[in-house]
């Protein structure tokens, strides 16, 4: 095992000892109650199976049949979640075939960040994760279930579902993906149209045609953003059926993989080692971080993985990400870090390749327990195909490896993972450099201050054309829910392509699709809480140095301390349901602690 991996993991385990012990004590107490359904009163139980068929009622009346609780994020507005409409029927039929029962225990919200980018609804996005966690817990609270199947894919949905499910960590739990849509318009062409539109060289009709050709059918978006990063770490944590992550929704294999998930869950439900809370320990969390770094995944997971880990009593921070990034090489080039999409990535070797290479280089905890046995590579470096009576798994062959998409650990695309902790007199922030060209990783330029994304977009539309560091403040979790600022990327990228030195500094987030423009994000302390970003003025020179991991304003410490922070803009707490989230904003933790309303409770 790589010494840095060993050192970081040991530090996390020491830091987490008290919280992890308390979590496992809670898990053991829940498991000690045994099958809680048998302790329900007759009235409770009758309510619980009133809508079931005769066979299911008979099974649920006794104390032997397994009952699987299904948590679904189905809606037919999200392309990624629309395929889940058919899954409950598939799951119930598979459960019946193996002598079990299955019930949809509850549904969670599932908003689409692709729809809400730049809109008021984006200010609800991050907190939708906490709402999803709550909804998951409500669904599993009925004391009817011996195991759980969780249906979710996209940005806040899987993190929220996992946080909620971990509060029922005594249950064996599998996550069931729906798969990506098939490849449409290639990502390079889509990005080019976006940049031409930002430069007023393409019409809205042209842009909509390009977007519609890219996002064109049921299934997950095919770029490697937060949604597909979620799917990566579900596999790296051992919570998916092996080789199931990137199978398309319309492939006959998709439904058979779902049936296999039910059969397998029924087979291992009595195994304490497969309890969700046992699987998600500090080693599983480190594996998820290593997978994120090796694949150039979403910066959103510097928040989400922190919150997930805390739900299992494990405490991680951005220093852990940074130190692991220094030793984990970049093994993949998938858009926005390359031109390939996740279908191409799957065909070039996919997650099995990544697991094999990281394990071989000592950059994973390979001896962990998964839902499919001991050993991550032994369980997940697999191919799968249809066979009589089900599925056939075999060691992955990697016959079509494309070294423009995946590389071996000995010959990576980059020697480091690309997520860096930036520090300096402005605070602590995260920067992802895996898609940023070396010549753009150091920017020293005057600050231009903006109160929100709209102000910067307006300035770009009016012809802003100079070297500058865009400072977009009052976008933190306490201020307005920490929206993604993805719409800034095309306009700033146009200036960068023209030779301007540009960068972004914000206490908000960027999308999982953030790419070529250097961006220091999640800046803490945030402006609303008196962070130094609130004291910056137009013209202050900012030094943005990705190589040295420094983010500084060239302002004397004494002057910066004496400056009065800018007043927060008004009017961001109301409309579009935002007032309903005011209480959550008021108690949310800082981003490095997960940006969650649960931080003081779990």
What does this structure look like?
The protein is of the alpha/beta class. The protein folds into two domains: 3-33 and 66-115 and 140-182 and 217-395, no CATH class; 419-593, IlvD/EDD C-terminal domain-like (Glucose Oxidase, domain 1, 3-Layer(bba) Sandwich). Helices cover 39% and strands 14% of the residues. The strands form four sheets. Strands 9-10-14-13-12-11-15-16 form an eight-stranded mixed β-sheet. A four-stranded parallel β-sheet has the order 2-1-3-4, with helices on both faces. Strands 5-6 form a two-stranded antiparallel sheet. The longest helix is centred in the N-terminal third of the chain and has 30 residues, at 3-32. It is globular. The two termini are 31 Å apart. The mean pLDDT is 94.
What order do the strands of the largest sheet run in, or round the barrel if closed? 9-10-14-13-12-11-15-16
- Number of helices, counting only DSSP H or I runs of 4 residues or more: 23
Alpha carbon gyration radius: 24 Å
| Main structural class | alpha/beta
Enzyme class: lyase
Domain Dihydroxy-acid/6-phosphogluconate dehydratase C-terminal: 404-595
Binding site for [4Fe-4S] cluster: 154, 221
GO molecular function, one term: metal ion binding
List the helices and strands and how they pair.
Blueprint (H helix, E strand, L loop, with lengths): L2 H30 L9 H8 L4 H8 L5 E6 L14 H11 L3 E7 L5 H4 L5 H19 L6 E5 L5 H10 L6 E4 L10 H12 L5 H11 L11 H11 L15 H17 L7 H4 L2 H14 L5 H11 L6 H8 L16 H6 L2 H11 L8 E2 L2 E2 L1 H5 L1 E6 L2 E6 L23 E6 L2 E6 L9 E9 L2 H9 L6 E5 L4 H4 L7 H10 L4 E5 L12 E6 L16 E5 L4 E4 L3 H6 L19 H6 L15
Parallel strand pairs: 1-2, 1-3, 3-4, 11-12, 12-13, 13-14
Antiparallel strand pairs: 5-6, 7-8, 9-10, 10-14, 11-15, 15-16
Helix pairs in contact: 4-11, 6-7, 7-14, 8-9, 8-21, 10-13
Enzyme class: lyase
Family: Belongs to the IlvD/Edd family.
Cofactor: [4Fe-4S] cluster
